[in-house]
Amino acid sequence: MNNKEYIAELSRRTGFSQDNTQRMVRCVIESMAQQFDGVENVMVPDFGTFELKNRMERIVVNPSTGQRMMVPPKIVLSFKPVASVKNKMKKGEQNG
Q1: Which of 39, 42, 48, 92 could lock onto 81 through a cystine, CB 3.0 to 4.6 A?
Q2: 21 class by beta-carbon count within 10 Å (0-12 exposed, 13-18 middle, 19+ buried)
Q3: Low-confidence residues of the chain, pLDDT below 70?
Q4: Angle at Cα 48 formed by Cα 15 and Cα 30, nearest 5°?
């Protein structure tokens, strides 16, 4: 599902115009991004938690050349779904 399809479906389900739905989705995403700037986790009830994690510096090997390279430390975004979402994903269930 791409963004256009997502907005259309969300608009259909909520009864709001696609324009208003798009603005609401952008507002939610911007709000989440602001929380990440403050290095805070974002929990979405009945869905899961988005959290920032520190990745340590590590050495990787290029498989074709065998050359070893150092990858610097960085912060990555991870997602941990709640148990009910995780079970649906394992079973391959879809809401429709």
Answers
A1: 48
A2: buried
A3: 93-96
A4: 60
Claim to verify: residue 46 and residue 26 sit in the same structural domain:
no
pTM of full prediction above 0.90? no
**What is the rounded distance in angstroms from the CA atom of residue 61 to the CA atom of residue 35?**
35
Q: List the domain range (segments joined by +) for residue 27.
A: 1-39
Task: Indicate if 49 and 94 belong to the same structural domain.
Answer: yes
Same domain, 12 and 24: yes
Are both 48 and 92 inside the same structural domain? Answer: yes
At position 39, the amino acid (one-letter code) is V
| Strands lying side by side in the sheet with 42-44 | 42-44, 48-55, 74-81
